[in-house]
Design goal:
The complex is a heterodimer of chains A (147) and B (282). With 147 residues, chain A is mainly α. In chain A, 79% of the residues lie in helices and 0% in strands. Chain A is built from five helices and no strands. The longest helix of chain A is centred in the N-terminal third of the chain and has 46 residues, at 2-47. The model of chain A is unreliable at 1-9 (pLDDT under 50). Chain B is mostly helical and 282 residues long. In chain B, helix 4 packs parallel to helix 9 (200-224). Chain B starts with a helix and ends with a helix. The chains are: A mainly alpha (147), B mainly alpha (282). At the A-B interface, helix 1, helix 2, helix 4 and helix 5 of A face helix 1, helix 3, helix 4, helix 9 and helix 10 of B.
């Protein structure tokens, strides 16, 4: 009985550390990405320019990503950020935000390893691999001329 | 001109805050209302609405998951096991979205919303389900757990049943998430509530962990195919996150059955509107 109790206590101590790490990671990745999005939005409001050719409200709310509307590739986002284009800055924040769960899953792999839970470390790693595969799906869609 | 644009941006922001509050209360990603708001009231094309929504879903999930991780109500092992199925489904869903006509998307959206309400209304009032024994797979993977319920003021221990039907429902929930750009929290909660018989608070908070990871599996596809428009995604992400923070603070103070009633009614109304739009009536 005491063995079980002490084992449970030890487990909860490990869980405490991992939940702290997760909390810090989640909070900061959201703070950083949303701050970047806010900076981009404020810059857009203040300058009244997106940095791209989106003139009227109609095109602002209906345009898909392209060279003239807004960037959606890492290289074009980055070059836009370097020239302080508001929409490129927003996209950078959005990209960091949407990659947060990727990092979270990888973190979860290490947390399970730390808790000596090999089965769940492998499960979490497989989930991470599935997430990576989703990015490859973009190529498949493009090859099929759907995207 | 710029004032109209800024005004529009602010309207989307306010609508997103409201969606975020409601979403957090029901264990949803907030996206379930964002797409209808954007398409029905702001006339945003549905693909871009889905793209903005899926980003907001990640913001909500990460933001409120941070709070839930500390509360220790969510069950990370159950969540990690089940996202195997939701992420796979989400990739399939995002693929289907790219080949589905717009009207059909509206229709499916409405149907999905209404289906998610029916089982919710049936079992209102049951606070903690009574499961006699664990599913063998749940026993093997150690999916059972316990949490402190701040309303009941006691530790609640729970067992887990129906892992396989739960996993199958999760694959479908993931497909719906990827297809419609929603967290499909309602479906994840349903799978955990009906098939696996978890306490509603464990279901909603665990679903919140799963929502973010599931959404990420399709968000990358929407982003890199150019369906995440910064003019829409920025106010939506900021607004939904703010709303979620407020909603999470409310959630820990209210009883489970009132949570269900609130989001059942709202989802029903919005679902009907989406069906009417899909049918070309509005």
């Amino acid at each position: 009985m005491t063995d079980v109790a002490s084992k449970e206590q030890k487990l909860s101590a490990e869980e405490n550390i991992s939940s702290k790490i997760l909390t810090i990671y989640l909070i900061w990745s959201v703070i950083i990405s949303v701050s970047i999005i806010i900076v981009g939005t404020i810059l857009f409001i203040v300058t009244g320019k997106s940095g791209y050719n989106m003139e009227n409200l109609n095109s602002l709310i209906t345009a898909k990503g392209s060279l003239s509307t807004y960037p959606f590739y890492i290289q074009s986002i980055w070059s836009g950020v370097l020239t302080l284009k508001p929409f490129a800055i927003i996209q950078l924040g959005v990209l960091i935000l949407l990659l947060t769960p990727f990092g979270r899953m990888l973190l979860q792999v290490f947390i399970f390893l730390y808790e000596k839970d090999t089965t769940f470390a492998i499960i979490a790693l497989v989930v991470f691999a599935i997430l990576l595969f989703s990015l490859y799906m973009v190529n498949i869609l493009e090859a099929l001329h759907i995207a | 001109m710029i004032y109209i644009v800024i005004g529009y941006l602010m309207e989307i922001l306010v609508a997103s805050i409201a969606a975020g509050i409601i979403g957090a209360l029901g264990g949803l990603g907030g996206g379930v209302l964002i797409v209808p708001f954007l398409t029905l009231y702001f006339h945003v094309p549905i693909s871009l609405a889905i793209g903005a929504s899926i980003v907001s879903v990640i913001a909500t999930s990460s933001g409120s998951a941070a709070a839930y991780v500390r509360d220790k109500i969510s069950n990370i092992r159950i969540g990690t096991f089940l996202v195997l199925f939701t992420t796979t489904g989400a990739i399939l869903g995002a693929f289907i979205e790219h080949i589905t006509p717009v009207k059909v998307l509206f229709f499916i959206f409405g149907i999905v919303l209404i289906i998610s309400v029916i089982p919710m209304l049936k079992k209102i009032g049951e606070e903690v389900p009574n499961v006699e024994r664990n599913d063998p797979l749940a026993e093997k993977l150690g999916l059972y757990g316990e949490y402190y319920d701040s309303v009941l003021k006691r530790e609640v221990k729970y067992k887990v049943t129906g892992v396989k039907p739960g996993a199958a429902m999760m694959f479908m929930a993931g497909t719906i998430s990827g297809l419609l750009g929603i967290g499909s929290g309602a479906f994840k909660v349903l799978a955990m509530d009906l098939a696996m018989r978890l306490p509603i608070k464990v279901s909603t908070t665990t679903s919140n962990f799963m929502i973010g990871v599931t959404a990420a599996a399709s968000a990358g596809i929407y982003f890199f195919t150019g369906d995440v428009n910064p003019f829409i995604a920025a106010p939506v992400a900021i607004g939904v996150l703010l709303g979620a923070i407020i909603g999470t603070k409310i959630l820990v103070r209210i009883r489970s059955s009132s949570v269900r009633k609130i989001f059942a009614v709202i989802i029903l109304i919005v679902g009907l509107e989406m069906i009417l739009r899909g049918a070309g009536v509005i």
